[in-house]
Amino acid sequence: MRALPPASRTEGREALMLQIPCPWCGPRDEIEFIPRGPVASRPDPSTASDLEWTTYLYQGANTRGWLREYWVHTHGCGQLFVVTRQTLTNEIAPVEGEPAAPTREDAP
Fold first, then answer.
1. Local confidence pLDDT in tens for the 108 residues of the chain
2. CA dist 92 to 34, 50, 100, Å?
3. What is the pTM for the complete model shown?
4. CA 47 – CA 50 distance, rounded (Å)
5. Where do the structural domains in the chain lie, given as residue ranges?
6. Options 3.40.50.740, 3.40.50.360, 3.40.50.2300, 3.30.2270.10; which CATH number does 31-97 get?
7. Are 22 and 12 in contact (CB under 8 A)?
8. What one-character-per-residue DSSP string does the chain give?
9. What own/partner pairs with CB < 8 Å and gap ≥ 24 does 81-90 have?
10. Which residues pair with 82 in a beta bridge?
11. Taking CA atoms, which of 22, 61, 63, 88 is between 20 and 30 Å from 104?
């Protein structure tokens, strides 16, 4: 059986914090963010059965490997964006999303 990497984010006695690259503010410590869960298709409220809603709300896939998640930069810009994270190692891939382009009202 293959050994898995440790689930803990500590090496020895020093705790390590995830560095999440906010598309608007740059890399920041994970304490500035709140995870909002995996990116998943939401059932149509007008046609979904109770079983479909129960599955969507309470029975997550608990994916091993790469997972796309919503994160909110609550102690920064307040933006919602998608992070792709390796659930076994907490490695973070380049972040999806770009800062909004200025509108005509913002232009000089």
1. 566 555 545 455 455 788 999 999 999 999 999 999 888 888 998 999 999 989 888 887 788 999 999 999 999 999 999 999 999 999 999 876 554 443 444 333
2. 15, 35, 22
3. 0.68
4. 10
5. 31-97
6. 3.30.2270.10
7. no
8. -PPPPPSSSEETTEE---EEEETTTEEEEGGG-EEEEE--PPPPTTT--HHHHHHHHH-----SSEEEEEEE-TTTT--EEEEEEETTT--BPPPB--PPPP-TTT--
9. 81/22, 81/23, 82/39, 83/20, 87/63, 88/4, 88/5, 88/7, 88/64, 89/5, 90/9, 90/18
10. 70, 96
11. 22
